[in-house]
Protein: (2Fe-2S)-binding protein
Organism: Dactylosporangium salmoneum
Amino acid sequence: MPTPTGLPGASAGEPVRTLTVDGARVTITGPPHATLLDELRAAGFTAAKASCRRGECGACTVLVGGRAIMACTALAALVSADVTTAAGLGTACDDLRAAFADHAAFQCGFCTPGQVVRAEAVLREDPHRSRDEITRAMAGNVCRCTGYRQIVDAVCAVAQSRRLAMEAGA
């Protein structure tokens, strides 16, 4: 990507800033209007999918400072917290990945990284959500293949499992 010009302190060939993405330092060198999605993909992080590029589908969902956002609508230059993609979640969401497989919650798989990131954020925020609350919280992520019942079933199963684990550990 081209190096920004006209920014205070920026000159040709000089990076604007760095971000931490999935635990790695990444140099942001795109123009000031570059989205987080564009910068992630330019840096080789492809788990966030480029689909609608308008914040309508959720395929590009990542965590920024632990909060789920659509990377296609965030200006990279304004992101100041750590970024975590589906790949960067590591073993933290193995239970979600397994539940998605067990409940047939994906077919083509294109939306799955964004769905898993959103589901992880939803469960981190409140593992005690009802099925209706989980359904509403997942509504911003579109799946054109499975419908949503299987996705919600998978997230609900993990929510219940995590609640039981928390109660057993308490």
Observations:
- The chain has a mean pLDDT of 89.
- The first strand starts at residue 17 and ends at 21.
- The radius of gyration is 17 Å.
- Residues 99 and 154 are 5 Å apart (CA to CA).
